[in-house]
Amino acid sequence: MPIRSMTGFAQVKGQVNQKLAFTLSLKSVNHRFLDLHFRLPSDTDALEMKLRRLLKEKIHRGHVEVSLSLDRNSEQSMALNRELVSGYISAFRAAAAEYSLAAVPDLNVILRLPGALESASSSADGDLEAAVLAAVDGVLAELNRMREEEGRGIEQELRSRMQLIEKAASGVGGHRQAILHAYLEKLRSRMQELLGSQVDSDRLLQEAALLVDRSDIQEELVRLETHVKHFLGLLNEGGEVGKKLDFLLQEMNREANTLLSKTSGLAGEALKITEIGLSIKSEIEKSREQVQNVE
Questions:
Q1: pLDDT tens for residues 121-156?
Q2: Are 231 and 283 in contact (CB under 8 A)?
Q3: Residue-level pLDDT at 201
Q4: What are the counts of helices (DSSP H) followed by strands (DSSP E) for the chain?
């Protein structure tokens, strides 16, 4: 399955009968988890539960808004829900008699009660659920088509940035000898400052070697290269890989920070490592911005 963005929109229109039509819309944006929000007509709780179950099977991450609007024929007549209205009037009169109140029911209030008025075609509303559920596959396919199209663009950019990181890491490796020389000069200057001109060159080399060993960046470069290969492997694998990609980028950022901390304070040619390390961090941050929108 290809890489998918979490951003997309899809809409489908359907017809239940000559007097009732509907519009089903899905809009998704990025989110850490799957977050479903429904805007459905009243008295469609059962339909919402079924839609929720279907969407959870097809979508793994993202804030998804599900909207359903109904379009009824304006010429259709309205019918009185006699059972509901009669029950309300009876309860009103019973309460008025119990408390000795001189009051009569207000018809305007009664007709505003939910369900007091029904369309003459309300018997056809039972077919609405079946029609909407039948349209879900189509609207989901359109949503995923848009998300996959945007996902291809994100994948292309991520691959390009991984190539830049690999190239930069290789460039850092080419300056490793400069680090040894820089540490040697730094140590020589410090020892001469403390001991004068009587500096044992063998001892100086030993101290420099120990210092460089503790500050060697080879491990960071190897781990960075491994993370990049794993990252590209996940892109090849496709599917729901957004969280894994984000984790790998956090690990890459950690290696870049360690590399910079080990080479801080160096001058001369070794200073180029700092410049390259900062460029690596920049590419990682730009990659993380893109990965935040990958499912």
A1: 444 456 888 999 999 999 999 999 999 999 999 999
A2: no
A3: 63
A4: 9, 6
Residue 284 CA to residue 282 CA, distance in Å, equals 5
Q: Which residues pair with 11 in a beta bridge?
A: 25
Does this model's pTM top 0.85? My answer is no
Helix (H) or strand (E) holding 106: none
Cα–Cα nearest to 256, from 244, 245, 246, 264: 264
Tell me: the pLDDT tens digits for 20-46? 889 999 999 999 899 999 999 877 888
Residues 6+ apart with CB under 8 A from 279: 164, 168
Question: Which of helix, strand or coil describes residue 99?
Answer: coil
User: Alpha carbon of 2 to those of 5, 10, 41, 44, 151: distances in Å?
Assistant: 10, 19, 35, 34, 8
Where are the domains positioned within the chain? 8-75+127-146, 78-119, 178-215
Radius of gyration of the chain (CA): 34
Q: Other C-beta atoms within 10 Å of 31: how many?
A: 14
Domain 8-75+127-146 belongs in CATH node 3.30.450.40? no
Is there a contact between 19 and 51 (Cβ–Cβ < 8 Å)?
no
Tokens standing for residue 32: 């850490």
DSSP-derived 3-state class of residue 267: coil
Integer CA distances (angstroms), 63 to 46, 51, 138, 249, 258, in order: 21, 15, 20, 23, 35
Share of the chain above pLDDT 90, in %: 46
CB atoms within 10 A of CB 95: 11
Q: CA 56, CA 59: separation in Å to the nearest integer?
A: 5
Q: Are 51 and 136 in contact (CB under 8 A)?
A: yes
